[in-house]
Amino acid sequence: MSIDEPQPTDSAGASAPPRAAETPRSLAEALRSRGDDDLAALLHARPDLLNPVPTDLTQLATRAGTRASVVRALERLDRFAQQVAEALAVAPEPATYGQVLALLAGDDGDPAVEPAFRRALATLHEQALVWGPDERLRLVRTARELLAPAPQHPSPTGLGPTVAEATAGMSPTRVQDIVTAAGLPTTHDPVSAVRSLTALFDDRERMSALLDEAPAESVEVLSRLVWGPPYGQVTADPARHLRWLIDRGLLLPTAPGTVVLPREAALHLRAGRAHRVLVPTPPAVGVAREHRPQVVDATAAGQAYTALATVEELLKDWDEGGPAVLRAGGLSVRDLKRTAVALDLPEPLAAFWVELAYAAGLLASDGEADERYAATPAYDEWQELPPAERWAALVTAWLPATRTAGLIGGRDGKDRTLSALGPHLDRSVAPEVRRRVLTLLATLPEGAAPDPDTLLARLRWERPTASRRPADGSEPEDLRSRIARWTLNEAELLGITGRGALATHGRALLGGAAHQGAGDGGATGAGGAAGGPNGVGDAGAVGPGEQAALAARAAGLLAPLLPEPLDHVLLQADLTAVAPGPLDRPLAEALSVIADVESKGGATVYRFTPGSVRRALDAGQSASDLHAFLAAHSRTPVPQPLAYLIDDVARRHGHLRIGAASAYVRCDDEALLDEILADKRSQGLRLRRLAPTVLAAQADPGTLLEGLRGMGFAPAAESPDGDVLITRAHAHRTPPRSAPEPVPEGPPVPDATLLGAAVRAIRAGDLASTAPRKAAPAADGELPRTTAAETLATMQAAVLTGEAVWIGYVNAEGAASQRVIAPVRVEGGFVTAYDHTADEVRTYPLHRVTGVAELADD
After folding, report:
1. Where is this region: Disordered (predicted)?
2. To which H or E segment does residue 851 belong?
3. Which pLDDT does position 670 carry in this prediction?
4. Which of 55, 313, 413, 514 has the most CB atoms at less than 10 Å from its CB?
């Protein structure tokens, strides 16, 4: 028995003995002969067929043949499976297994093609794109229309119409002239003449003899048309070499001034092959560099820690309220540049970290009247987690995210700039491409970095239609390849890879997909890519719960590799402090108040300035507090210049007092106030003396503080009670926000429970629609019609005999359906019965039953 013949199952879902071989007359019949497991595989591979669940197998077959569903199914095939479908589109209908194989392998009959062809054919059968046994293979009609040659859309194979199709509108006399010019005997009718010409073109020896007589210029014309497009333009009086081809039917007219190379002639010139280049196996992913796995893991761990520090620095920069939200949503170009400067990163990298924080739910808009971006309450919870768990939260948000940071700065279909955190950044294909790229990395030996070009070639083989789809203005022509390149860079930034190779904790993120990919080396042939039913549909996809568990396992592997936070710095005489590694968060936060970050890297350098020391004093620290803090956290003695700097700033800090008048300056040193009044830089503050120790200003306290500080003084603000105001940064938080939901690419892949329930419902509905009846409806699909008395009598009789009946039923919403039920009780205007269609006991009002009929005896 052929591999494509379905295996019937019994009611429990187990395989039943095969029935006598019958050639199905339609796709519905072919589906009807499949087992439950095969139907579940179809629905898994094409989840769009499940929305809503078909009522029976006829409706399932109809839906599987709709244009939108077929286009989606064809796009999700790998390159060789598409080539098999293209060969079926130009083969006779129905075609035999051998005919299609010959179109793929050519006259030479490459034996390496058949194993891949059998796998590809099985994939097309599974997805209901092909039906019938090996002796009568049929491509679904919609797929044939999409792939078959036509003037308005040339075939992907580059073949033109057959001789019969091209001569359909030709006069019988012209057909006989072609037959005679080709050296064939004349016939009595055009049909036999076309058949005779077709037989000539199909005969390799006779065709070779005919072409041996052709002028060299004619052969050159055929060589230009043979691989497509097969159409050419001719004048009203074609040249001699063109006339030779036209007279013998090697070029047939399709329209005034247009000729086509018929399919049979092209196949002879191609040695029987439908494709110029056949790719039955996927290209291997090459290795660009190899490193020791320990080096890869250490590099990835260091980058993972840098990723955490970058996100923290970003949100700390926006801690008191970040940039404003644009009216159309998103971050302005100017604010993105400011953020990039603050992070000391290029703008594309800054945009990636902003989008990642948003995807992880750490960043959102505050929703206030003056809407701004700020950290969410989830950020505070995230900060309390151990470093490895914080990393796991970031990668768990990155893997399924459909927002694509690489598009930022580009243009959408309406020529609008795509901004960070703005709309129109979702690309549904992004999660699948990310996971597929990582899965392919897992197929390489540990420590091996891939060659990007071979990786992209593999992805294009797995999804060729998506890669070559013409641009529509809103999508790049090869979006998948661009996302794949971005994935390689982003995985390195996140520490999933190190030096281009997948780290050990990166493999753990993929779970079974990594082991499967590594075990089979990336299976070959149609559907060979590890993961989905057709090889690429949902490669290694996992649910949110399972992904969280995998991320936790990866975090456990990463944790020992992360550097331990330090509790000390090294103070130097040039007013700097060197942190030789990552610092404890309390120490880092305190040090960032008293000093400014001068440089980052393996060691962070902080610089103490009068302004930074004054900032610490404004936050409520005293000089003695700062001396004690530095002495406690420095492995080197506190340098004398630093001690002098702290004491000098502290001595002058708060000598001037600023309050609200609009504002005033108070100082016990009258000479200092005289100096301020005499300074020309104070004219903008419009100061005047109220008392020997008090100056009043027509400026608010904040402006007055900044103005005097700009003049070189160190004033302090005071409260209405005369106490020094301690200025601390107040963290601004948004209300609780949920992370953005990924935008799925089509309907979600159903789980096993849903598939089982759907198959049972379709089987039951099919039983109801195909059960033999004693009283057939007046027309196909029409409900049975009986009077109320006949309905009641038949129901009561069925209760007594225990037999099932066929009814028409209209529910409260007015939807009509046919059902097979076994009545168990009739009373009070209701019938209680076991509904075979729904596979449960239900109660139906008799007034909604349109009619009833007994089922035919077996």
Report:
1. 1-29
2. strand 849-854
3. 84
4. 514
* pTM as predicted: 0.76
480 phi, psi to nearest 5 deg: -60, -40
- What are the residues whose beta carbons fall under 8 Å from the beta carbon of 11, sequence distance 6 or more? none
Contact 849, 833 (CB under 8 A): no
Would you give the end-to-end CA distance of the chain in angstroms?
29
Give CA–CA dist 155/142, Å, rounded: 14
Average confidence score pLDDT of the chain: 84
Q: Which residue has the higher pLDDT, 262 or 733?
A: 262
Rounded to 5 degrees, φ, ψ at 500 are: 90, -15
Torsion of CA 612, 616, 618, 620, to 10 degrees: 180
> In angstroms, rounded to a whole number, what is the distance separating the alpha carbons of residues 505 and 443?
15
The continuous run of DSSP H or E covering 624 comes out as helix 623-633
* pLDDT tens sequence across 598-655: 887 767 888 999 988 888 888 778 888 888 989 989 889 999 988 888 888 888 877 7
Beta-sheet pairing, 570-572 with 501-502: unpaired
DSSP bridge pairs for 417: 411
> According to the model, what pLDDT value does residue 798 have?
86
Lowest-confidence pick of 497-501, 548-552, 732-736, 779-783? 779-783
Strand order of the sheet with strand 663-666?
Answer: 687-691, 694-697, 663-666, 657-659, 716-717
Alpha helices in 469-503 (DSSP H): 479-494
Strand-pair partners of 9: 15
Q: Quick one: what percent of the chain has pLDDT higher than 90? A: 39
Asked whether residue 472 carries a pLDDT value surpassing 80, the answer given is: no
- Residue 221 has which token pair? 């014309």
Torsion of CA 647, 653, 656, 658, to 10 degrees: -170
Q: CA–CA separation, 220 vs 226, rounded Å?
A: 10
Question: Using an 8 Å Cβ cutoff, are 304 and 311 in contact?
Answer: no
Closest CA to 246 of 269, 223, 222: 222
Question: Measuring CA to CA, how many Å separate 130 from each of 61, 148, 609?
Answer: 12, 15, 76
